[in-house]
Amino acid sequence: MKLVLDCDPGLDDAVAILVAAHYADLIGITTVAGNVGINRTTRNALVVAQVAGVDVPIHRGAARPLAGAAVDGSRIHGQTGLGNSVLPDLTWSEASDDAVAYICDTARSVDDLHLLAIGPLTNVALALQRDPDLRRHLAGLTIMGGGAHIGNITPVAEFNIWADPEAAAVVFEKAAPVTMVGLDVTNRVVFGDGDIARMRATATPATELAANVVEYLLDRFREYLGHSTVPVHDATAVIAATHPQLFEKSRHPIAVELSGAHTRGMTVADLRPAALGRALDQPRPPTSDVVWGTDVEAVRELIVEAVVAY
Ligand code: BDR
Ligand code: CA
User: Fold this and answer.
1) Domain limits at 100?
2) Which atom of ligand 1 is nearest the CA belonging to 152?
3) Which of 103, 110, 130 lies closest to 32, judged by CA?
Protein backbone atom coordinates (compact mmCIF):
# COMPACT_ATOMS: atom_id res chain seq x y z
CA MET A 1 0.00 0.00 0.00
CA LYS A 2 1.33 3.43 -0.97
CA LEU A 3 0.79 5.74 1.96
CA VAL A 4 1.11 9.38 2.95
CA LEU A 5 0.95 9.83 6.72
CA ASP A 6 -0.38 13.12 8.09
CA CYS A 7 0.59 13.37 11.76
CA ASP A 8 1.22 15.50 14.86
CA PRO A 9 3.94 13.68 16.81
CA GLY A 10 2.97 13.14 19.59
CA LEU A 11 3.89 9.94 21.43
CA ASP A 12 1.58 7.54 19.61
CA ASP A 13 2.29 9.28 16.29
CA ALA A 14 5.98 8.45 16.78
CA VAL A 15 5.16 4.74 17.06
CA ALA A 16 2.78 5.08 14.11
CA ILE A 17 5.59 6.40 11.89
CA LEU A 18 7.65 3.29 12.62
CA VAL A 19 4.71 0.95 12.07
CA ALA A 20 3.65 2.70 8.84
CA ALA A 21 7.15 2.55 7.36
CA HIS A 22 7.34 -1.16 8.24
CA TYR A 23 4.05 -2.35 6.74
CA ALA A 24 3.34 0.18 3.99
CA ASP A 25 5.18 1.78 1.11
CA LEU A 26 5.42 5.07 3.02
CA ILE A 27 6.14 7.73 0.44
CA GLY A 28 5.83 10.87 2.52
CA ILE A 29 4.94 12.41 5.86
CA THR A 30 3.09 15.67 6.46
CA THR A 31 2.85 17.43 9.80
CA VAL A 32 0.12 19.41 11.48
CA ALA A 33 -0.22 21.27 14.78
CA GLY A 34 -2.10 19.26 17.38
CA ASN A 35 -0.50 17.51 20.32
CA VAL A 36 2.08 20.31 20.32
CA GLY A 37 2.78 23.26 18.02
CA ILE A 38 3.82 22.88 14.39
CA ASN A 39 7.52 23.56 15.03
CA ARG A 40 7.60 20.70 17.51
CA THR A 41 5.48 18.25 15.53
CA THR A 42 7.62 18.85 12.44
CA ARG A 43 10.86 18.52 14.40
CA ASN A 44 9.55 15.37 16.09
CA ALA A 45 8.57 13.76 12.79
CA LEU A 46 12.05 14.51 11.44
CA VAL A 47 13.82 13.18 14.50
CA VAL A 48 11.77 9.96 14.61
CA ALA A 49 12.41 9.40 10.92
CA GLN A 50 16.11 10.14 11.36
CA VAL A 51 16.50 7.80 14.32
CA ALA A 52 14.69 4.99 12.52
CA GLY A 53 16.22 5.63 9.09
CA VAL A 54 12.79 6.24 7.56
CA ASP A 55 14.06 8.21 4.58
CA VAL A 56 10.95 9.90 3.18
CA PRO A 57 10.19 13.58 2.50
CA ILE A 58 8.60 15.40 5.44
CA HIS A 59 6.45 18.44 4.66
CA ARG A 60 5.39 21.00 7.24
CA GLY A 61 1.68 21.74 7.41
CA ALA A 62 -0.88 23.89 9.18
CA ALA A 63 0.08 25.76 12.33
CA ARG A 64 -3.46 26.39 13.53
CA PRO A 65 -6.99 25.04 13.05
CA LEU A 66 -9.39 26.48 10.47
CA ALA A 67 -11.13 28.44 13.24
CA GLY A 68 -9.99 29.50 16.68
CA ALA A 69 -6.72 28.99 18.48
CA ALA A 70 -4.37 26.03 18.39
CA VAL A 71 -4.95 23.47 21.14
CA ASP A 72 -2.34 21.73 23.22
CA GLY A 73 -1.90 18.13 24.28
CA SER A 74 1.29 18.52 26.29
CA ARG A 75 -0.31 17.26 29.52
CA ILE A 76 -0.26 13.83 27.91
CA HIS A 77 2.58 14.13 25.40
CA GLY A 78 5.02 16.29 27.39
CA GLN A 79 6.33 19.76 26.55
CA THR A 80 8.33 18.53 23.55
CA GLY A 81 5.58 16.18 22.34
CA LEU A 82 7.87 13.16 22.76
CA GLY A 83 7.65 12.77 26.54
CA ASN A 84 11.03 12.81 28.24
CA SER A 85 12.93 11.12 25.42
CA VAL A 86 16.50 12.29 25.01
CA LEU A 87 16.75 13.06 21.33
CA PRO A 88 19.81 13.24 19.08
CA ASP A 89 20.74 16.41 17.23
CA LEU A 90 18.56 16.85 14.19
CA THR A 91 20.49 16.57 10.95
CA TRP A 92 17.55 15.87 8.62
CA SER A 93 15.47 18.75 7.33
CA GLU A 94 11.96 19.27 6.04
CA ALA A 95 11.28 18.92 2.32
CA SER A 96 8.93 21.91 2.19
CA ASP A 97 6.58 24.03 4.28
CA ASP A 98 3.59 23.27 2.06
CA ALA A 99 2.08 19.97 3.17
CA VAL A 100 -1.22 20.85 1.48
CA ALA A 101 0.39 21.21 -1.96
CA TYR A 102 2.31 17.98 -1.37
CA ILE A 103 -0.89 16.08 -0.52
CA CYS A 104 -2.72 17.45 -3.56
CA ASP A 105 0.15 16.87 -5.98
CA THR A 106 0.93 13.38 -4.68
CA ALA A 107 -2.72 12.30 -4.83
CA ARG A 108 -2.78 13.22 -8.52
CA SER A 109 0.64 11.83 -9.44
CA VAL A 110 0.70 8.53 -7.51
CA ASP A 111 -1.78 5.78 -8.39
CA ASP A 112 -3.57 3.98 -5.56
CA LEU A 113 -2.42 6.39 -2.89
CA HIS A 114 -3.87 5.99 0.59
CA LEU A 115 -3.94 8.98 2.93
CA LEU A 116 -3.85 8.26 6.67
CA ALA A 117 -4.42 11.22 9.00
CA ILE A 118 -3.62 10.70 12.68
CA GLY A 119 -3.78 14.28 13.89
CA PRO A 120 -6.27 17.14 13.57
CA LEU A 121 -7.70 17.22 10.04
CA THR A 122 -6.58 20.75 9.14
CA ASN A 123 -4.21 19.78 6.30
CA VAL A 124 -6.73 17.38 4.80
CA ALA A 125 -9.50 20.00 4.87
CA LEU A 126 -7.22 22.61 3.30
CA ALA A 127 -6.25 20.10 0.62
CA LEU A 128 -9.94 19.49 -0.11
CA GLN A 129 -10.55 23.22 -0.36
CA ARG A 130 -7.65 23.53 -2.78
CA ASP A 131 -8.66 20.47 -4.81
CA PRO A 132 -12.34 19.53 -4.43
CA ASP A 133 -11.61 16.39 -6.51
CA LEU A 134 -8.95 15.19 -4.08
CA ARG A 135 -10.96 12.23 -2.79
CA ARG A 136 -11.37 10.80 -6.29
CA HIS A 137 -7.60 10.65 -6.59
CA LEU A 138 -7.16 8.69 -3.37
CA ALA A 139 -7.58 4.93 -3.07
CA GLY A 140 -8.57 5.43 0.56
CA LEU A 141 -8.76 7.96 3.36
CA THR A 142 -8.37 6.66 6.91
CA ILE A 143 -8.33 8.78 10.04
CA MET A 144 -7.55 8.19 13.67
CA GLY A 145 -10.21 10.31 15.24
CA GLY A 146 -13.71 10.47 16.56
CA GLY A 147 -15.82 7.61 17.78
CA ALA A 148 -19.46 6.70 17.84
CA HIS A 149 -20.53 8.93 20.70
CA ILE A 150 -17.59 8.43 23.02
CA GLY A 151 -14.82 10.88 23.74
CA ASN A 152 -11.54 11.39 25.53
CA ILE A 153 -10.89 15.15 25.58
CA THR A 154 -14.61 15.73 26.42
CA PRO A 155 -17.32 13.17 27.24
CA VAL A 156 -18.26 12.91 23.56
CA ALA A 157 -15.34 14.40 21.59
CA GLU A 158 -12.07 12.76 20.64
CA PHE A 159 -8.95 14.95 20.66
CA ASN A 160 -8.17 15.07 16.91
CA ILE A 161 -11.72 16.07 15.95
CA TRP A 162 -12.11 18.46 18.88
CA ALA A 163 -8.79 20.15 17.97
CA ASP A 164 -10.24 21.27 14.61
CA PRO A 165 -13.96 20.45 14.30
CA GLU A 166 -14.43 22.73 11.29
CA ALA A 167 -11.76 20.78 9.39
CA ALA A 168 -13.27 17.45 10.41
CA ALA A 169 -16.68 18.64 9.18
CA VAL A 170 -15.18 19.49 5.77
CA VAL A 171 -13.54 16.07 5.57
CA PHE A 172 -16.64 14.03 6.48
CA GLU A 173 -18.75 16.19 4.15
CA LYS A 174 -16.44 16.41 1.13
CA ALA A 175 -14.28 13.29 1.31
CA ALA A 176 -16.67 10.50 2.25
CA PRO A 177 -16.35 7.64 2.65
CA VAL A 178 -13.74 8.12 5.34
CA THR A 179 -12.61 5.13 7.38
CA MET A 180 -13.01 6.39 10.95
CA VAL A 181 -10.67 4.51 13.24
CA GLY A 182 -12.01 6.07 16.41
CA LEU A 183 -11.97 5.41 20.11
CA ASP A 184 -14.48 2.55 19.69
CA VAL A 185 -11.61 0.42 18.47
CA THR A 186 -8.37 2.21 19.43
CA ASN A 187 -9.26 2.14 23.15
CA ARG A 188 -9.30 -1.67 22.98
CA VAL A 189 -5.73 -2.20 21.78
CA VAL A 190 -3.76 -1.52 24.94
CA PHE A 191 -0.12 -1.95 25.87
CA GLY A 192 1.48 -2.68 29.23
CA ASP A 193 4.89 -3.13 30.84
CA GLY A 194 5.45 -6.47 29.09
CA ASP A 195 5.00 -4.93 25.65
CA ILE A 196 7.37 -2.08 26.51
CA ALA A 197 9.99 -4.57 27.73
CA ARG A 198 9.71 -6.49 24.45
CA MET A 199 10.19 -3.28 22.47
CA ARG A 200 13.21 -2.34 24.54
CA ALA A 201 14.87 -5.76 24.37
CA THR A 202 16.49 -5.21 20.96
CA ALA A 203 18.04 -1.95 22.24
CA THR A 204 18.47 -0.04 19.00
CA PRO A 205 18.00 3.75 19.00
CA ALA A 206 14.58 3.36 17.33
CA THR A 207 13.28 0.62 19.63
CA GLU A 208 14.52 2.63 22.65
CA LEU A 209 12.62 5.66 21.39
CA ALA A 210 9.44 3.65 20.81
CA ALA A 211 9.68 1.98 24.22
CA ASN A 212 10.29 5.34 25.90
CA VAL A 213 7.31 7.07 24.32
CA VAL A 214 4.91 4.21 25.13
CA GLU A 215 6.27 4.12 28.67
CA TYR A 216 5.74 7.87 29.07
CA LEU A 217 2.17 7.47 27.82
CA LEU A 218 1.58 4.59 30.23
CA ASP A 219 2.98 6.65 33.11
CA ARG A 220 0.42 9.39 32.36
CA PHE A 221 -2.38 6.79 32.35
CA ARG A 222 -1.12 5.45 35.69
CA GLU A 223 -0.91 8.97 37.11
CA TYR A 224 -4.28 10.28 35.86
CA LEU A 225 -6.40 7.11 35.73
CA GLY A 226 -4.65 4.42 37.75
CA HIS A 227 -4.53 2.20 34.66
CA SER A 228 -1.80 -0.37 34.03
CA THR A 229 -2.26 -0.41 30.24
CA VAL A 230 -2.55 2.33 27.64
CA PRO A 231 -3.89 2.63 24.08
CA VAL A 232 -1.49 3.72 21.33
CA HIS A 233 -4.29 5.07 19.13
CA ASP A 234 -2.33 6.13 16.07
CA ALA A 235 -0.43 2.86 15.71
CA THR A 236 -3.73 0.97 15.72
CA ALA A 237 -4.99 3.27 12.96
CA VAL A 238 -1.96 2.34 10.86
CA ILE A 239 -2.77 -1.36 11.21
CA ALA A 240 -6.40 -0.63 10.30
CA ALA A 241 -5.11 0.87 7.04
CA THR A 242 -2.53 -1.81 6.27
CA HIS A 243 -4.45 -4.86 7.57
CA PRO A 244 -8.13 -3.97 7.04
CA GLN A 245 -9.16 -7.63 7.10
CA LEU A 246 -8.54 -7.65 10.87
CA PHE A 247 -11.18 -4.97 11.54
CA GLU A 248 -15.00 -4.86 11.69
CA LYS A 249 -16.73 -1.81 10.32
CA SER A 250 -20.13 -0.56 9.17
CA ARG A 251 -21.19 2.44 7.11
CA HIS A 252 -23.30 5.26 8.53
CA PRO A 253 -24.03 8.94 7.94
CA ILE A 254 -21.59 10.98 10.04
CA ALA A 255 -21.80 14.68 10.88
CA VAL A 256 -19.44 16.69 13.07
CA GLU A 257 -20.99 18.82 15.81
CA LEU A 258 -19.68 22.38 15.59
CA SER A 259 -21.85 24.34 17.96
CA GLY A 260 -23.01 22.27 20.92
CA ALA A 261 -22.15 23.72 24.31
CA HIS A 262 -21.19 20.25 25.55
CA THR A 263 -20.77 18.41 22.27
CA ARG A 264 -18.50 20.47 19.99
CA GLY A 265 -16.17 18.10 18.18
CA MET A 266 -18.45 15.07 18.49
CA THR A 267 -18.71 12.76 15.47
CA VAL A 268 -22.44 12.12 15.28
CA ALA A 269 -22.91 8.75 13.60
CA ASP A 270 -26.49 7.94 12.62
CA LEU A 271 -26.81 4.33 13.73
CA ARG A 272 -30.57 4.19 13.11
CA PRO A 273 -31.97 2.20 10.20
CA ALA A 274 -31.68 4.40 7.08
CA ALA A 275 -35.42 3.96 6.49
CA LEU A 276 -36.22 5.80 9.71
CA GLY A 277 -34.34 8.93 8.66
CA ARG A 278 -36.10 8.77 5.29
CA ALA A 279 -39.52 8.25 6.88
CA LEU A 280 -38.94 11.28 9.07
CA ASP A 281 -37.80 13.24 6.02
CA GLN A 282 -34.49 14.15 7.61
CA PRO A 283 -31.38 15.13 5.67
CA ARG A 284 -28.68 12.45 5.64
CA PRO A 285 -25.03 13.47 5.86
CA PRO A 286 -22.60 11.53 3.63
CA THR A 287 -21.80 8.03 4.86
CA SER A 288 -18.44 6.85 6.20
CA ASP A 289 -17.13 3.68 7.79
CA VAL A 290 -17.12 3.37 11.57
CA VAL A 291 -14.50 0.84 12.70
CA TRP A 292 -15.83 -0.97 15.74
CA GLY A 293 -13.62 -3.85 16.70
CA THR A 294 -10.66 -5.96 15.85
CA ASP A 295 -8.55 -8.93 16.79
CA VAL A 296 -6.86 -7.07 19.62
CA GLU A 297 -4.07 -9.60 20.18
CA ALA A 298 -3.17 -9.70 16.49
CA VAL A 299 -3.01 -5.91 16.21
CA ARG A 300 -0.91 -5.55 19.35
CA GLU A 301 1.46 -8.22 18.06
CA LEU A 302 1.78 -6.54 14.65
CA ILE A 303 2.67 -3.24 16.32
CA VAL A 304 5.29 -4.77 18.63
CA GLU A 305 6.78 -6.81 15.77
CA ALA A 306 7.06 -3.70 13.60
CA VAL A 307 8.88 -1.81 16.35
CA VAL A 308 11.35 -4.57 17.19
CA ALA A 309 12.22 -4.89 13.50
CA TYR A 310 14.10 -1.58 13.80
C1 BDR B 1 -5.41 11.09 19.35
O2 BDR B 1 -5.14 12.34 19.99
C3 BDR B 1 -3.75 12.56 20.08
O4 BDR B 1 -3.41 13.05 21.33
C5 BDR B 1 -3.08 11.25 19.74
O6 BDR B 1 -1.85 11.47 19.08
C7 BDR B 1 -4.08 10.56 18.85
O8 BDR B 1 -3.90 10.91 17.51
C9 BDR B 1 -6.14 10.19 20.33
O10 BDR B 1 -7.35 10.80 20.73
CA1 CA C 1 -1.86 11.96 16.72
Assistant:
1) 2-308
2) 10
3) 103
Closest CA to 63 of 36, 83, 82: 36
Strand pairing category for 140-144 and 113-117? parallel
Cα 252 vs. chain centroid, distance in angstroms? 20
Residues of the chain with confidence (pLDDT) below 50: none
What is the rounded CA–CA span in Å between residue 123 and residue 118?
11
Backbone region of residue 68 per phi and psi (left: phi > 0; alpha: psi in -120 to 50; beta: other values): left
Q: Which among 5, 12, 121, 183 is the best mutation to test ligand 1's pocket, defined by most ligand atoms within 8 Å of the CB?
A: 12
All residues at 6 or more sequence positions from 157 whose CB lies less than 8 Å from its CB, including other chains: 151, 165, 257, 263, 264, 265, 266
Q: What is the pLDDT of residue 149?
A: 86
CA–centroid distance, 205 to ligand 2, in Å, is 22
Domain count, the chain: 1
234: Cβ below 6 Å to ligand 1? yes
Question: Could you tell me the pTM of the whole model?
Answer: 0.97
Nearest CA to ligand 1 atom 4: 35
pLDDT digits (tens, 9 = 90+) for 212-262: 999 999 999 999 999 999 999 999 999 999 999 999 999 999 999 999 999
Q: Tell me the residue ranges of DSSP E strands in 95-171.
A: 113-117, 140-144
Burial string for 165-195 (b: 16+ CB within 10 Å, else e) reads bbbbbbbbebbbbbbbbbbbbbeebbbeeeb
Q: Which of 31, 71, 118, 153 to mutate to test the pocket of ligand 1 (most atoms within 8 A of CB)?
A: 118
**Residue 220 CB-half CA count within 13 A:** 19
pLDDT of residue 54: 98
Q: How far is the CA of 227 from the centre of ligand 2 (A)?
A: 21
Q: Tell me how long the chain is.
A: 310
Active site residue 270: no
Neighbour count for residue 71 (Cβ, 10 Å):
18
CATH number of the domain where residue 211 is located: 3.90.245.10
